[in-house]
Design brief:
Helix content is 48%, strand content 15%. The chain is an alpha/beta fold and 308 residues long. It has a single domain, classed as TIM Barrel (Alpha-Beta Barrel), CATH 3.20.20.70. Helix 2 crosses helix 12 and helix 5 runs parallel beside helix 6. 49% of the residues are buried. The structure holds glyceraldehyde-3-phosphate (G3H), 1,3-dihydroxyacetonephosphate (13P) and zinc ion. The site of zinc ion has 5 residues, from loops.
Length: 308
Amino acid sequence: MPLVGPKEMFANAYAGHYAIGAFNVNNMEIIQGIMEAAAQEKSPVILQVSAGARKYAGQGYIMKLVEAALGCYPDVPVCVHLDHGPSFEMCRDCIDGGFTSVMIDGSHLPYEENVALTKQVVDYAHPKNVWVEAELGKLAGVEEHVQSKEHVYTDPDQAVDFVKRTGCDSLAIAIGTSHGAYKFKGDAQLDFPRLETISNKLPNYPLVLHGASSVPQEFVELCNKYGGQVGGAKGVPEDMLRKAASMGVCKINVDTDIRLALTASIRQYFTEHPEQFDPRSYLKPAREAVKNMVARKIRDVMGSSGKA
Ligand code: G3H
Ligand code: 13P
Ligand code: ZN
């Protein structure tokens, strides 16, 4: 099947109280691991490409890898999405390059500028049938072009105004998640009353949760056991993600867990096989680790198994 946009995926997810996993891709092994998992679980999937991934791999390479994946798994609905698009120009390049969905991230801008930039992307994307995700509120932590020390949670009334004025198709909200492996100093806490209010004020509207890795401790422990230094890493508990998925969150973003699964596997392999230097010897189990992590997440967190 050709690449699809997320419209039907999200409509079904919203009605069925589950979410679609949006997994960040940077190279062939990651794409293969995610696609093997989605095919095994018979789940729709979003492959998302950040500005950093475009810079690392090249948009052309990534799109050819995705094309190859579509050929290998014709029954899996796949959407290719630009993650945290920093500018109109990058969104335009991705739309022209065949992406079926883009995110314009104006969350760091003053409100009126975020509205104007998002609307500019929507006006370009919609005639070409491309979906637009936008962001309102600020996640603490570091993204490639956006740094924020403090969370600025999404204001529910502003969210309604923003969606109405921009025409964006889905909205990433800030309710306490953050990017990376260190999400909470103490107990994990998300502002579910705020999510409920936003969801009620925007009925039938797909919300997006960024910074939603659960940072499985098994990978943290493996990394640290084999020479890593990722002490104190903490993610969003899985039951909170499932709860969010039942409250209008249709897209759950995962990057950090992929990095951890891959790196834990490679660290272990290098320690246990110091004589090996064929990249295929360690990338094969690393790809398998990504596949197993993604399959479990699709099954137990997203709830999207069997929905392809
Ligand atoms: O939200 C950020 C994603 O994890 C992508 O990270 O910009 O380092 O590729 P990146
Ligand atoms: P994590 O860092 O929690 O995996 O979040 C990824 C993300 O939001 C990508 O946009
Ligand atoms: Zn993000």
